[in-house]
Structures are given as C-alpha cells and as structure tokens.
Design brief:
Blueprint (H helix, E strand, L loop, with lengths): L6 H21 L10 E7 L2 E6 L7 E2 L6 E6 L3 E4 L7 E5 L4 E3 L7 E4 L2
Antiparallel strand pairs: 1-2, 1-4, 3-8, 4-7, 5-6, 5-8
C-alpha cells in the first residue's frame, strides 16, 4: 500500500511551523537593550543634572564637569576626563556614588 500526501496538508504544516517560529521570536525578550534603566545624577558648578534611561555605548557630555555623581541605573557608568569619552577616569557600578576633586570628568558612557 502506498501513501500519498496531500499538498494542502504539507502547506498547512509549513504555515503552522512558520507561524509558531514567529510567535516564539516575538515572545522572547530582546537581549540587546538600547538604554540603561534608571537615572544617572550628577552635580557640577552650574547645577544639578540627571540623565534618565541613558542610551548604552553612547558618549554623554557632563555640563562643566561633574563634582559628584550617583549611578542609579542598571548599567556600569564609565566616566571620562575629556568630553569625547577618550581619557577614562574609572567606573561607577549600579548604586555607587562618588565626589570628584581636582580634574573633573566631562563625559560618561553606559554599558560595556
């Protein structure tokens, strides 16, 4: 006895498989978020500032240099002495605060 398959059944199974794969993909959380969640607070000689939900891996200027900073985001904040994120001061982990003396950081980048 030979079995013949109906092309419509085959097409239906293919559509079901493709639909299931698309549904699974849509349900997965995106692993490469584009922003840190939270707020980075800093003080400079011209006032208090905050960067809310900062973009990841983007250099952000700090107005007139930061005299203190508090990283309340879920990403590491790397601070830089220059305004173009080229001369690293060091990093603040989530929840860390510091004050700066002498040379002040003038930019920050979030994430790695």
């Amino acid at each position: 006895m030979t079995s013949t398959r109906n092309p419509a059944t085959r097409l239906g199974r293919l559509a079901l498989t493709v639909g299931a794969a698309l549904a699974l993909f849509a349900a997965l959380p995106m692993s490469s978020a584009h922003a840190a969640a939270g707020t980075f607070f800093y003080t400079s000689s011209v006032g208090d500032f905050q960067i809310k939900d900062p973009p990841l891996r983007t250099c952000e200027p700090l107005h007139d240099g930061a005299t203190s900073a508090s990283n309340q985001t879920n990403a590491t904040a790397t601070l830089y002495f220059d305004g173009s994120c080229g001369n690293s001061w060091g990093s603040l982990q989530s929840g860390q605060f510091t004050s700066f003396f002498g040379d002040l950081p003038h930019s920050v980048r979030f994430g790695s």
